[in-house]
Design goal:
GO terms for molecular function: ATP binding; protein kinase activity. This protein is an alpha+beta fold. It is built from 12 helices and 12 strands. Strands 1-5-6-4-3-2 form a 6-stranded mixed sheet, with helices on both faces. Strands 7-10 form a two-stranded antiparallel sheet. The chain has a two-stranded antiparallel ribbon with strand order 8-9. Helix 5 packs antiparallel against helix 7.
């Protein structure tokens, strides 16, 4: 296959193999997760993932059996599997329907990004395989995605404590990508189906196929074509192709509203969740946002903080959106300082005028390049 013989892949896998059992440096548990620490004065560590053989993955997934298929999209399929030592894994196989160039690009992007990160709220990469195709190997998320648990009518409603834990953990993981890594990482596809859950309902950000490195000297990327998921795209990205940390902040705001309300990012009438929630947030009708399936069982003070954070994240102007460290401050501080975030009157008027761009999104929805749907793993 042509893409396996490319020079970029050869360089990638010319590295000396490191043991799968080597320990990865972990964060200091005594330090707040949203505190930015200076990088250590030592040579950068090479990633610790393993290069699997095709035989290992074939055996683990029962020959990539359809019974082991837990997720699929236009460019990849995800299979659950079990290694010989009993360790449960998820194998992402890039499908043959996409072009070789696109497969290689997404493969290198994802492995080059997630292979160098280490945070409890980011899905860890265990390894990869380039025999008979391109494969990425992850830990199996036993609880599946936030979207699968939130919207499955056959499951009991997710309680408020779990929802609160999920949004805080996701914010910490996203803050780490933006400010805790040696190089800034813009995810570009933050959404409920890309937030996977451990057995303890700890959220982990996954699917880095659209991620971008952002050099420190750059303020933003200018990207074409636009890729992402309808209902989550920030105005400046959708209209002008501008990507920076605030692009992810907007998508996180939509995710936050989805967890609070239990509503999908786009409803049956093609109305986006943020356009539905915006008037309620402006009028401070916060209780109206809450998922009725909770039947009033939620912490009112926590709700107020999360709703206020969401209102800041989905602002049309990227300049007036907070950073993820500021989002964490808003969600965790005892008293909210709303005056700190009050926009000038002329800015508020422009903000209201701008909230029609989602109608343009609806018109051109089919042009988006969509990423994987829910990867639902068995319990």
């Amino acid at each position: 296959m042509k893409y396996i013989r490319s020079s970029s892949l050869k360089r990638l896998f010319s590295w000396k193999r490191r043991s799968f059992d080597e320990q990865v440096l972990t964060n200091d548990e005594n330090v707040d997760t949203f505190e930015v620490l200076p990088p250590p004065e030592q040579p950068p560590q090479r990633p610790t993932w393993k290069c699997f053989s095709h035989e290992e993955l074939f055996d683990a997934t029962n020959g990539f059996s359809s019974e082991n298929l837990v997720g699929k999209g236009g460019c990849a399929q995800v299979y659950k599997g079990t290694l010989k030592d009993g360790y449960e894994i998820a194998v992402k196989r890039l499908t043959r329907t996409s072009s070789d160039e696109r497969k290689e690009k997404e493969f290198l992007t994802e492995i080059g990004t997630i292979g160098h990160v280490n945070h409890p709220n980011v899905l860890p990469l265990l390894g990869c395989c380039i025999e008979k195709g391109l494969y990425l190997v992850f830990e199996l998320s036993s609880k599946g995605s936030v979207a699968s648990l939130l919207h499955d009518q056959n499951l009991l409603p997710m309680d408020w404590k779990t929802r609160h834990k999920i949004v805080l953990g996701t914010a910490r993981g996203l803050h780490y990508l933006h400010q805790g890594c040696k190089r800034r990482i813009i995810h570009r596809d933050i959404k409920a189906s890309n937030i996977l859950l451990t057995s303890e309902f700890e959220p982990q950000i996954s699917d880095f196929g659209l991620a971008k490195w952002l050099p420190n000297q750059w303020t933003h990327h200018s990207i074409a074509p636009i890729e992402g998921t309808f209902g989550h795209l920030a105005p400046e990205y959708y209209l002008h192709g501008i990507v920076d940390e605030k692009t992810d902040v907007f998508a996180y705001g939509v995710f936050l509203l989805e967890v609070i309300s239990g509503r999908k990012p786009v409803d049956g009438s093609h109305q986006s969740l943020h356009s539905w929630a915006k008037p309620l947030l402006n009028k401070e009708e916060i209780e109206t946002l809450v998922d009725p399936k909770l039947e009033g069982a939620y912490d009112s003070s926590q709700l107020q903080r999360l709703a206020f954070a969401a209102s800041l994240c989905i602002r049309a102007s990227a300049t007036w959106r907070p950073t993820m460290s500021q989002v964490l401050e808003v969600m965790e501080e005892v008293e909210m300082n709303k005056e700190k975030w009050k926009m000038p009157e002329e800015e508020e008027e422009q903000e209201e005028e701008f909230w029609g761009f989602e109608d343009l999104e609806c018109e051109y929805e089919s042009s988006f390049s969509l990423t994987l749907p829910d990867s639902i793993a068995s319990s």
